[in-house]
Amino acid sequence: MTVETAQFARPSAPWQAVPALVMADGTAAHPAYRALLAPAAPLRDVIDAVHAICMLHGRHPGVVDFALARDTDKSAEAWLVEAARAFETERACLVRLVAAAGPLPSTPGQAESEAAIVAQAHALDTLAQSDRTGCAIGAAVALVLDWAPIRDLLNRAARRFGIDITADTLPAAVDTTTLLATAFTSPAVERAILFGTEQVLAQHRGLWSLLESRAVARNRS
What we know:
The protein is an all-alpha fold. It contains 9 helices and no strands. The protein has helices at residues 17-25, 31-37, 43-57, 63-70, 77-101, 110-128, 135-161, 173-183, 187-220.
C-alpha cells in the first residue's frame, strides 16, 4: 500500500530526521488513531484495530527480527537484540488482546481488507530484509518509535476488555537516540535509513486509513 509522505521541517542533525518523521507522519498524527483513543470510541472499532495490528505485527519473525538477521557488521546488535526481545512480549500481548476482544466485527469487504493487510505485512518483511545498508535499521527504529502510540491504544483496549497486559520493554529513548546518532555513517546510509523509516510509517498510515474506511462501511451497513 503506497502512501505519500508528508512534508516536515528537517532538523539540524541528520539523525534527528527519524524521530521528526515519526512525529509528523506516524501513527499519532493520524485522525483515525486519535479517534480510537477517545473514551467514547465504539468498541467494535477498537476490536477491529486490535485484530488488524495483530495481523500486521503479531507474526514471527517480524521487522525487528529480520533487521537483526541483516545486521552483519553487528553495529546495532545490542539495540536490535533488546528490541527483538521486547517484541516477543508485544506479540504475546497481542494474542491475549485478540482472545479477549472476540471475533472481528462484521464489516463489508472483509476479504479485501485482509488481503490489504497481508500485502502490508509482505511489504514490511521485504523492507526489513533489504540488502541496502541502513534500510533495515531505519525500518526497525521507525517501528519501535511508532510503537509507543500503538502501545497506548493497546493498553486502553486492555482496560476496556477488562484484562491486564505486561508493560512494554522496548529500548529506552536514549538508547535509540544513541543508535541513530552513530548509524548515519554516510549520505548513502542516511538515505537508506530515512527510506526505511518513511516506508514503515507509510504502511502504518495505510493501516489506520483502512481501519477508518472499515468503520465508515460498518456504519453504512
